[in-house]
# Entry
Amino acid sequence: MSSPFSPCSTERSEAVLRMLTNLKFWALTTALVWVVVVTVIIATNPEFARGTG
# Structure
């Protein structure tokens, strides 16, 4: 088991920080969440897809 102060742990935390501050990551995440939410809403309420709900 590696120490939390090992170089590998530092590299990993820097990579995570880079990912969380990356605008492209958040744009992709937001788009995917939006698609999933819309799909679930339409699957549970098909009248929304026809514009009658």
Remarks:
- The two ends are 55 Å apart (CA to CA).
- Residues 23-44 form the longest helix (22 residues).
